[in-house]
Amino acid sequence: MRNGRRRAACAFAVPMAAVTAALTLVGCGGSDDGPTRERRERPTTSPDARRGPWGDGGKAAEAGRTVGAPGSPCTLPVAFSAARGWKAESVPKGTHRQGTVEVACEIDAKPAGNIGYLRVWTGDGDSPRAALEAFAEDRHPERRRHRTTEAGDGGTALAEVSYLSRTVLDGEELDRKPVLAFAADTGDGRLVIVELGGTDAEEHRAMLPAYLLAKKTLKVRG
């Protein structure tokens, strides 16, 4: 009941004068139940401190529909399992480019209860690491880390990057959030990047199992 009264007071404090708004920031930012949402969403490259920025050892999501194969919503040079409940949709060619790749498929987490996506990007190039470097550079990255790993089948080499993506407008930083992405060489001078993106660090952590599933089940279609 005490928390209900506090939330009600905060709801009426928003449109008041500047001095009242300042008091609202001090008195209405949290509750007796734990830390404020602002504190929980503070970006970090470590989804779980025990597993590091990559989520190593974390549990993959339950598999839903296969994405990438003929007959799926997106036809891609690779195929992998999307998390159960996530919805894949093909993106028209030329819609958006980042680094040396352009987005080809977006797998939306909203039907499963999260705000974010897995995006699949395709492009030319014979170096997954170089493609990831150019990809991250477009997002004003901080705390960038690279490594070499492999897909769950043990036969597909992957380059992987972890970084904080920063949105900057006219020299002012608007937000920052963690990003994970891996890249695979699909042959014939082509490559694919699979990126995990969310609205904030909390959503990033919640959606990490979907990313781990994609990495675990990825196969180059040839």
UniProtKB/TrEMBL annotation:
Q: Which InterPro entries match?
A: Lipoprotein_23
What Pfam families would the database entry show? Lipoprotein_23
Q: What is this protein called?
A: Lipoprotein
Lineage of the organism: Bacteria, Bacillati, Actinomycetota, Actinomycetes, Kitasatosporales
Give the organism the record lists: Streptomyces albiaxialis
| Region described as Disordered: spans on this chain | 28-70
Span of the secretion signal? 1-21
Q: Which UniProt keywords apply?
A: Signal
Q: Where is the composition biased (Basic and acidic residues)?
A: 34-53
Does this entry carry the keyword Signal?
yes
Q: Does the keyword NAD apply?
A: no
